[in-house]
Structure formats: structure tokens, C-alpha cells
């Protein structure tokens, strides 16, 4: 449990993706089975544990610690699990170290009535960092900023297998993943036990007109790039599953799609919200994402649809080795319930200029560019450069005023690199977003100098700067948001230009941004 | 018999002893000052006369210049000042740190702990129990959440991180007096023999520790960022452009406050190290039990927690709420 506690602590304080991968892969290499498998399950969200309520934890602490001292401490720390981990009185002889497997066992197997005593007994045996890790498991919230995908990438780094290979079999496996670890260290490949497994998806790379110019347009098919989410719909052997592009199952939130998956095969496409023929913006889709169940009202007001562009298996045959044109023909020959599932149309074009024109004037706002796919390539897992290109529409831009800055981590230590910017609302500047990238290293140095010279107030690590500098912020879209003071949230905002030349008074107004919604 | 309040009382300038006519760790210039230790919030320049340990006087001269006071006297054995006898006793906090005992001829003995610590520390003399009637204590870590782990184990986490990220320089924020030298000594004890780079602000105090016979191993200035793997700096340097010379550093911070995650996160720390030169909760409460004074007065810190503990123990206690001493200063 000590190693797992150290792992969680380091991950929680490490911002950099590469540093996180290093920490994770070292842990997975150094930790024996089955502990590392349980840790992997905890990080990838596949660990099904008995959940402990905050009120139960408070009650347990109340039995060991004076109530007033607890309240003062909780006030000071601000986090319940952390307070209990720190304040739980040490017992004289806690015994040998508890393994992660033992701790997980307690949370998996203890009955509801016996649980409070079992948790207290476990807390007695643990050190403060271990207690925190245990309580995070028990409350089901690790909060270490690691996605299931990142955990699998770290796993791939420990052995000779690529992350796509791991994802291909991932869904047939169960914690603590002994056959998986055995395979990674040279053993036999575990056969995907489950029907309707996820197949690692083929991804595209960005392209510029200059890069397209030397290529032969006749070698490519063109499609619209839809602003939904990429999904893989698999209906095989009586099982129906809807996967995100990283292999997370999201079917529970889309029973309407699952119901329509009346076929035998695995298809690839975009998940969208469509009312009649009109495809709704991404924000509508967002309302249905990340849910464990879905209500009737939302099902009716936000009906989901699949817009397919590829086919991976069909009626028992693996079609992935076929060239795209043949797969497309098979896809068009397949029959789907039209109301929920249609095909992404092929865009006719002869020269790259045609593509430029199409991209410049898409027929619907939910289209975010064009896709160009080589006709002769098979379906290749991962992100090979060449067969599939995305050429996104130009981002939206707005001129905003720099308001706050916070210093960065890792490579940006000591530099003010995280910026909050705002727009005019009458005579006031209202914060509308944050941006961490988009600028060059040289521009970062200039921004850092500006922040230091123009600080008007400090709030811990944050500096408020005099509202003098205008930055051009580029972003991919806007959503309404109750969590932002401005009522609007930007997607992928970044600083595209620094407008040293532009006076702050000439920055954009909030109404301008609202009009872009 | 005189009452304790007639021996020591809180004033705006800090603790004052009327029968001796002196202040203890005064917050502003006074005619006569007794200083417990050299941290900047306890030892300030500009007093008429200063009585302190030899090392505290040396440290004040290093920090403020030789003219930090008009007259100075080394505390060496019991001394008669006015109508009281004062004596200095090791506090285990930083080099030169002392507790000050004030004993009237006929009345309660008052012990002013200053800041103190009971964990072994190679850079200073260990804390000594001193019998007293009134114990005036700090309560920097006066809540039961503060249980400082073994400082060597914390240092081993630092060494492990350096092994895990050999290409990233590890920058440890540590207060210039005491903490910095302690972290260096701990790193040596944990087997780190390579030169340790130090920020310019640490140089003179590190040199002084070496002069006083404390082995810190090879130290180099942190001017060549390519060479240094382990660098110590005052925490305030993290907010200055000085940090920018290091490529992709791991920011570490050695402090008792690192127990609380929000504190570490607020400072943007990647590797929090819980290394403190103050008593933690078990040491603080054990000290009150060991000394068993008639009354406890609390100078500063999170006194509500300690007040509650004293209440549960039936130990008379009162907060002095002295303003001007920092939590754990920088």
C-alpha cells in the first residue's frame, strides 16, 4: 500500500504528461502482481468497490478524535479524506504493511454492516499517506489527473506492445489483469474473451494547403469533418457496445443508438445529435455525454444519431485489411435503420481548389472542416501520417485583454504561462477564459516580463495585471456555461497573437462573443 | 509572591519583563532585547542592547551587519538582570536557538520556548527540558493533523525522485537559516555525496554553519544550471526569474506545511517534503505533559487547537495572540 500511496501522491502533484507516464510506468514495472493490476484498475476506472459515504467517514473519525479538534482540523485542511488520513490516531503496533490487494479485498468483499468496523480496522493499520490512498479508493475519487488512456499508454511503455495492441484486448480483461502483465513480459497473448470487443481506431493528422499541393487529388476521398465525437459501434454475437475512440464504453448514455444497432459487425463514425435532418451543435451532444443513465426527456429533446464513415468487421469478416474504397463499398451495401444511422457523404472534387472552396463554405455550422482519406490504404490502428488528413476550418478569434497570470510547472517553472483574459462588458472587463499555449518560447518570455512589470495585486501564486495588453485568442467553438461568470465557455482557447500594438480599450466586447454562439 | 503577569506580559512590541526591564524577541526596536534565535521575525535589528547565544549574535551580524545593535552580550550561564535571573537553554530549532528561563527571587519561573523542535537535528544542539511554572510556547503546528514524518525518510523521497528523473534538476525551497542547512545535512545522510548547488542568499549562512563545525559536504554556487542536479534556494526565489535558468525543474519545498496538500498545490510544488524545525502535535502535547507547568501561554500559531487540548487535559492555558511572528517565515 505504501508504493500505491506514493504513486497517487506523485501523480496528484505532477502536471506534466511525460512525467506522469514516467512515474506510472516505473510503478507498474516495480510493483508485483496482483497489486499493480489493482492499481491499474483503480486508475482506469474498472475497479468496482463498495463506496463509502462521507458521513460514515465523519462518524468513524468522531469515534476516535475530539469533535472540536476535528472541526478545527477539517477547517484547516479543507478535504475530508485528507483530514481523516492525517488526524486518525496512530495505534502502538499496527502490524506488517498492508498490501493494496488486501485493501481492495476489504472494499470488495465486506458486507454493508461490517464495513464501518472493517474500515476503522484498516485505518489503524495504515500510515497517513496510505490512509489517504485507501480513503480515496473508498470514496471512489482518486483525482490524480490520469485518464484510462494515459494509464494504458504507461502500461505500453513497460513492454514491447503498443497501446493499440493493448486496447484491442483490454475490454475482455478483468482486474487484476494477470494474463495482460504476463503477455507484456513475453507470455501468450490473452484472447479477447468478450464478444463485441473494441478495435483500436485509425486517426488522422492535420494538413496544410502547402502539404496537399504535391499530392494527387485522385488518390483521395473527401468527407466532411463532423463536430461530434468519434465512436465505434460494435454489434457482435448478440452483444451491442458503443465505444469512444479511446475504447471507453459509453453505451449507457445512448440507449437510442444501442437499440438501433441492428446489425452484425463493427462500424466507425461520428456520434451526433440530429433533429430531423438538422445536426445540432456540439454543445447539445455534450449534454448527453458522461452519464450513467439517461432520462426520457433528454432522449426526446436530444436524439442521438450515428453518421458512419468506415466499417471494420461485417458478419464475421474482418474488413480492416481491405483498401478504403472497398470498405466504403461494403459500408454502402450494408443496411442500417435510417432514422438513427446514416452515412457521411463522399464529397465530389477534382482538384485541391475544390476542397478549399468546400472547406470555406460548409453547408452546416456543425461541420468543422474536411477529411481527406487515401483510397488505397487499409484500416490501420493509431495515427499513421499520410493516409488520413484533417483540414479543419479556421478557428474563431477574438481580441481580449490579459487580466491574470499564474506561473507554470515543469518546463515553464518560473514563467507566468497560464493566462486569464477578459472582454469588455460596458465599462468592466469580464473574464471569459484561460489559455496556456499558442505562444512561442520567445513570446512566453515577453509575456512573463509584461506580467512582472505590470502586476497590480497578488493572490498567492496568481498575479493580477494592469489591463493593458491585448491578446488575440483563437478557439474552436463556444458553449453556454453556468459555471463561467460570462455565461460562455470556449473550446480549446489559445493565444494566437500578442497585440502589443492594440490599446486595451479597442479589445472586443462580450456581446461580440455572445453573437458568435 | 509576584504574579506571573508581573514577570512577563504581552505588549505591542512583544513580550516584556518589567522586573528585568527587557523584551523577548521584540517586534520593534527596544532598549534591551533578549533574542531566542536568528529567524528574521524573532531577531530584528536596531535594539539598544541584545543578549543572545553567541551563534544567534553571529547570525544577526551576518544578516544585518555588525552594527545591528549598539551593545551585545553573549548569554553564558545564569545572569542577573534587574530583579530576575535569566538563563538560555537549547531549543533544537536552528543553530544557536535557545529557550529563555526567567526566574524571579520569589515567584513563578517563566520559560519562553521561542520556536523549538524535539526531532534530532545535526545542525543544532538538542532541545532540553527546563523545569518551569509558566510555559510560554509557540503553536505553529497546533492541530492534531500535524505529525511530521521521519525527516530522513522524506529526504529519501527526494533522492528517489532524483533517480526517477535524472534529467530534471531538483530545486528545493528551504528557508535560508536552519532549514537549508538541515536539508543539506539530511541529503548527505541519505547518501547524496555530489556537490549541492546553493542560491546566493544561502551562501553566508551555509559558510557560518561550516565554520561552526557542521559538515555540509561540497557546496557550489547555483550559477551553472547545467551542472547542478540538487539546488537549494529560499522559497521566494521560486517566484522570481531566477528559476528560469533551470530546464524543466522539479520544484520541491521543505516545510511542515507540506503536510497539507492544498498548501503545496497553492505554491505549485511538485514534490512536497514535510521537513520541519518546529514541534509537531505529538511533540507539542508531549512537551506540555513532560514539563507539567501550572499554566501554558501560547504566543502564536494555530492556538485554537492547542487551547482545546489544554482544556481537555484540565491544563490552564491562554493565548497571547502576539502579532508579527510568521507561521514559518521565509
Task: Describe the structure using short key phrases.
heterodimer; A: 517 residues; alpha+beta; DNA ligase i, domain 1; D-amino Acid Aminotransferase, Chain A, domain 1; OB fold (Dihydrolipoamide Acetyltransferase, E2P); seven-stranded mixed sheet; seven-stranded antiparallel sheet; 20 helices; B: 330 residues; alpha/beta; six-stranded mixed sheet; 19 strands; EC 6.5.1.1 (chain A); nucleotide-binding (chain A); DNA_ligase_N_sf (chain A); DNA damage (chain A); DNA replication (chain A)
Ordered list of secondary-structure elements with their pairings:
The complex is a heterodimer of chains A (517) and B (330).
Chain A: H1 2-13, H2 17-30, H3 35-44, H4 54-64, H5 67-77, H6 80-87, H7 100-109, H8 115-125, H9 128-139, H10 148-157, H11 163-170, H12 178-184, E1 205-206, H13 209-212, E2 220-226, E3 229-236, E4 239-244, H14 255-260, E5 265-275, E6 278-279, H15 282-286, H16 296-301, E7 304-314, E8 317-318, H17 324-333, E9 341-343, H18 352-360, E10 367-374, E11 388-392, E12 396-407, E13 416-425, E14 428-435, H19 441-453, E15 455-459, E16 462-465, E17 470-475, E18 477-480, E19 488-491, E20 494-499, H20 510-515
Parallel strand pairs in A: 1-11, 7-9
Antiparallel strand pairs in A: 2-10, 3-4, 3-5, 5-6, 5-7, 7-8, 10-11, 12-13, 12-16, 12-17, 13-14, 15-16, 17-20, 18-19
Chain B: H1 4-7, E1 9-11, E2 14-17, E3 22-24, E4 32-34, E5 47-52, H2 54-64, E6 69-74, E7 79-81, E8 84-90, E9 98-104, E10 110-112, E11 134-139, H3 151-164, E12 170-173, H4 179-189, E13 196-198, H5 203-211, E14 219-221, E15 230-233, E16 250-254, H6 261-266, E17 271-273, H7 281-291, E18 295-301, H8 303-313, E19 317-319
Parallel strand pairs in B: 3-4, 4-5, 5-6, 10-11, 11-18, 12-15, 12-16, 13-14, 13-15, 16-17, 18-19
Antiparallel strand pairs in B: 1-2, 2-3, 7-8, 8-9, 9-10
Helix pairs in contact in B: 3-4
Amino acid at each position: 500500500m505504501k508504493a500505491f500511496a506514493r504513486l497517487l501522491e506523485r501523480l496528484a502533484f505532477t502536471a506534466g504528461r511525460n512525467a506522469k507516464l514516467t512515474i506510472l510506468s516505473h510503478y507498474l514495472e516495480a510493483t508485483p502482481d496482483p497489486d499493480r493490476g489493482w492499481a491499474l484498475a483503480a486508475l482506469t476506472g474498472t475497479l468496482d468497490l463498495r463506496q463509502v459515504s462521507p458521513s460514515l467517514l465523519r462518524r468513524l473519525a468522531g469515534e476516535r478524535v475530539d469533535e472540536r479538534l476535528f472541526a478545527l482540523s477539517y477547517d484547516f485542511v479543507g478535504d475530508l479524506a485528507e483530514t481523516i488520513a492525517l488526524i486518525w490516531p496512530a495505534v502502538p503496533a499496527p502490524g506488517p504493511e498492508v498490501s493494496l490487494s488486501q485493501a481492495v479485498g476489504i472494499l470488495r468483499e465486506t458486507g454493508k454492516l461490517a464495513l464501518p468496523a472493517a474500515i476503522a480496522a484498516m485505518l489503524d493499520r495504515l500510515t497517513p499517506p496510505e490512509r489517504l490512498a485507501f480513503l480515496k479508493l473508498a470514496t471512489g475519487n482518486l483525482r490524480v489527473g490520469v485518464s484510462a488512456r494515459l494509464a494504458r499508454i504507461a502500461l505500453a511503455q513497460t513492454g514491447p506492445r503498443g497501446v493499440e495492441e493493448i486496447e484491442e484486448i483490454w475490454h475482455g480483461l478483468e482486474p487484476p489483469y494477470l494474463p495482460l502483465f504476463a503477455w507484456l513480459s513475453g507470455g501468450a497473448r490473452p484472447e479477447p474473451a468478450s464478444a463485441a470487443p473494441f478495435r483500436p481506431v485509425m486517426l488522422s493528422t492535420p494538413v496544410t494547403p502547402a502539404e496537399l499541393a504535391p499530392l494527387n487529388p485522385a488518390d483521395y476521398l473527401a468527407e466532411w469533418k463532423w463536430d461530434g465525437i468519434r465512436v465505434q459501434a460494435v454489434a457482435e454475437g448478440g452483444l451491442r457496445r458503443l465505444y469512444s475512440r479511446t475504447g471507453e464504453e459509453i453505451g449507457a448514455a445512448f440507449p437510442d443508438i444501442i437499440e438501433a444497432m441492428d446489425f452484425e459487425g463493427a462500424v466507425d463514425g461520428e456520434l451526433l445529435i440530429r433533429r430531423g435532418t438538422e445536426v445540432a451543435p456540439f454543445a447539445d451532444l455534450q449534454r448527453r455525454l458522461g452519464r450513467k443513465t439517461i432520462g426520457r426527456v433528454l432522449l426526446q429533446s436530444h436524439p442521438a444519431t450515428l453518421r458512419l464513415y468506415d466499417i471494420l468487421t461485417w458478419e464475421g469478416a474482418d474488413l480492416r485489411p481491405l483498401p478504403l474504397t472497398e470498405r466504403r463499398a461494403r459500408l454502402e451495401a450494408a443496411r442500417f435503420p435510417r432514422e438513427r444511422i446514416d452515412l457521411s457523404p463522399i464529397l465530389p472534387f477534382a482538384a485541391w481548389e475544390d476542397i478549399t472552396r468546400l472547406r470555406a463554405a460548409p453547408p452546416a455550422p456543425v461541420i468543422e472542416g474536411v477529411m481527406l482519406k487515401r483510397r488505397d490504404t487499409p484500416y490501420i490502428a493509431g495515427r499513421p501520417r499520410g493516409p488520413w488528413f484533417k483540414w479543419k476550418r479556421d478557428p474563431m478569434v477574438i481580441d481580449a485583454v490579459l487580466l491574470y497570470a499564474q506561473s507554470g510547472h515543469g518546463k515553464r517553472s518560473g514563467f507566468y504561462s497560464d493566462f486569464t483574459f477578459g472582454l469588455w462588458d460596458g465599462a468592466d472587463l469580464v473574464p471569459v477564459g484561460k489559455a496556456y499555449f499558442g505562444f512561442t518560447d520567445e513570446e512566453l518570455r515577453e509575456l512573463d516580463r509584461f506580467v512582472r512589470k505590470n502586476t497590480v495585486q497578488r493572490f498567492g501564486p496568481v498575479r493580477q495585471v494592469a489591463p493593458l495588453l491585448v491578446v488575440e485568442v483563437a478557439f474552436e467553438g463556444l458553449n453556454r456555461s453556468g459555471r463561467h461568470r460570462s455565461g460562455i465557455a470556449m473550446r480549446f482557447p489559445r493565444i494566437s497573437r500578442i497585440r502589443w500594438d492594440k490599446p486595451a480599450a479597442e479589445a472586443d466586447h462580450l456581446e461580440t462573443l455572445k453573437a458568435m454562439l | 509572591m509576584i504574579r506571573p503577569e508581573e514577570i512577563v506580559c504581552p505588549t505591542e512590541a512583544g513580550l516584556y519583563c518589567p522586573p528585568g526591564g527587557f523584551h523577548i524577541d521584540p517586534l520593534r526596536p527596544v532598549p534591551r532585547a533578549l533574542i531566542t534565535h536568528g529567524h528574521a521575525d524573532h531577531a530584528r535589528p536596531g535594539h539598544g542592547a541584545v543578549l543572545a547565544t553567541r551563534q544567534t549574535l553571529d547570525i544577526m551580524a551576518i544578516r544585518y551587519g555588525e552594527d545591528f545593535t549598539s551593545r551585545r552580550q553573549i548569554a553564558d550561564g545564569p545572569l542577573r538582570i534587574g530583579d530576575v535571573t535569566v538563563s538560555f537553554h537549547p531549543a533544537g530549532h536552528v543553530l544557536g536557538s535557545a529557550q529563555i528561563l526567567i526566574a524571579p527571587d520569589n515567584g513563578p519561573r517563566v520559560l519562553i520556548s521561542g520556536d523549538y523542535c524535539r526531532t534530532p537535528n545535526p545542525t543544532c544542539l538538542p532541545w532540553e527540558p527546563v523545569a518551569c511554572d509558566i510555559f510560554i510556547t509557540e503553536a505553529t503546528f497546533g492541530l492534531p493533523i500535524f505529525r511530521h514524518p521521519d525527516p530522513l525518510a522524506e529526504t529519501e523521497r527526494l533522492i528517489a525522485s532524483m533517480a526517477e528523473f535524472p534529467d530534471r534538476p531538483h530545486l528545493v525551497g528551504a528557508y535560508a537559516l536552519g532549514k537549508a542547512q538541515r536539508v543539506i545535512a539530511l541529503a548527505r545522510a541519505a547518501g547524496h555525496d555530489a556537490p549541492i548547488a546553493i542560491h546566493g542568499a544561502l551562501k553566508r549562512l551555509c559558510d557560518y554553519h561550516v565554520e561552526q563545525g557542521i559538515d555540509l559536504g561540497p557546496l557550489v554556487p547555483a550559477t551553472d544550471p547545467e551542472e547542478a542536479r540538487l539546488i537549494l534556494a529560499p522559497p521566494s526565489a521560486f517566484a522570481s526569474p531566477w528559476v528560469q535558468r533551470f530546464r524543466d525543474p522539479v520544484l520541491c519545498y521543505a516545510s511542515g506545511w507540506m503536510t497539507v496538500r492544498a498548501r503545496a498545490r497553492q505554491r505549485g510544488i511538485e514534490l512536497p517534503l514535510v521537513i520541519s524545525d518546529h514541534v509537531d502535535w505529538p511533540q507539542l502535547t508531549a512537551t506540555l505533559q513532560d514539563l507539567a507547568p501550572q499554566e501554558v501561554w501560547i504566543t502564536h500559531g494555530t492556538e485554537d487547537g492547542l487551547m482545546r487540548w489544554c482544556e481537555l487535559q484540565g491544563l490552564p492555558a491562554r493565548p497571547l495572540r502576539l502579532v508579527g511572528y510568521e507561521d514559518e517565515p521565509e
